[in-house]
Amino acid sequence: MQKPKIVVFTGAGVSAESGIATFRDSNGLWHNHNIEDVASPEGWQRNPQLVLNFYNQRRRDLAGAQPNAAHKAIAQLEQAFDVCVVTQNIDDLHERGGSSNIIHLHGEITKARSSVDEDDIYPIGYGDIQLGDICRAGSQLRPHIVWFGEAVPLYGVAEEIIARADKILVIGTSLSVFPAAYLLQSARADAEKVLVGPAMEVVPRGYRYIADTAVGAVPPLVEKWLTEASCR
Ligand code: BV8
């Protein structure tokens, strides 16, 4: 029998309890930088060293972080469901928490890529990218990240998966970054939709809101869904 399909759509809040700074909670200033200076193509052109330092520091922070109980509970869903994690996050905590099917809408901090060929990608783990690190075509390596003002190549893939899901679980996102936030509108009308976050100002229509943190709300919700699935 085919397993029911679940999409788990996450934002920076799912990694907050692993000690990774969110965007909104730091008032849009990551490690005291303006977003335009460190997460945009213009910022990269203007001062590539500043951008490399910004991501090198976030990669080092990530090396010392661990997946939390929410990441692990999400991975447990794979016991009874066909799960796809669609994340806005660039960290690897869903992978380290055990999830096996992940779409990184905004790229991955553990990868570098050519600054002239977006398909020329290099796994770098938690290592630094330095000025002078070049791709096979001889151009400077950059973080494999979707910056503000850059297209989101996996949007269409994610949209198709969400449109087929029986359940949508949204965790830890302010829904303030587009087009990612539009994806929630692709959910089927008859899909079960749940949104988890401690302080959502606006809850999308049709979503049941759980006002709690990821670690507070997700493990019990997953337990409930797995129990229901075992009785099916
Ligand atoms: C594009 C990689 C076009 C970088 C990221 C004006 C209006 C609307 C849109 C725009 C506009 N001006 C410009 C735009 C478009 C722009 C955009 O959306 N800007 C925003 C800021 C308004 N979007 C783009 O530029 C996108 N590209 O539009 O391209 C185009 C098309 C074709 C061809 C060429 C170009 C690209 C956007 C991708 C940007 N890159 N990430 C990096 O990470 O360094 S987005 C970045 O922001 C991260 O991915 C992060 O995830 C995301 C922020 O969103 P959230 O994940 O939601 O995080 P946030 O901190 O906001 O919220 C955290 C939530 O968790 C909160 O609700 C909080 O309460 C909650 N929380 C806290 N603790 C917990 C918790 N929840 C649970 N448990 C807890 N413990």
Task: Outline the structure in words.
It is a single chain. The protein has seven helices and eleven strands. It has helices at residues 35-38, 41-46, 48-63, 69-76, 93-97, 155-163, 214-230; strands spanning 5-10, 29-30, 33-34, 82-87, 102-104, 107-114, 121-123, 141-145, 167-171, 192-196, 208-210. The strands form three sheets. The chain has a six-stranded parallel β-sheet, with helices on both faces. Strand 6 and strand 7 form a beta hairpin. Helix 4 runs parallel beside helix 7. The longest helix has 17 residues, at 214-230. It is elongated. 38% of the residues are buried. The chain binds ligand BV8. Ligand BV8 binds at residues 11-13, 16-17, 22-25, 39, 88-90, 106, 145-152, 172-174, 176-178, 197-199, 213-214.
Write the element-wise H/E pattern from the N-terminal end onward: EEEHHHHEHEEEEHEEEH
Rg calc: 18 Å
Strand order of the largest sheet: 5-4-1-9-10-11
Bound molecules: ligand BV8
Mean pLDDT: 95
Sequence stretches where pLDDT stays below 50 over 5 or more residues: none
What descriptive keywords fit this protein?
six-stranded parallel sheet, 232 residues, 7 helices, alpha/beta, binds ligand BV8, 21% strand
Compose a concise summary of this entry:
28% of the residues lie in helices and 21% in strands.
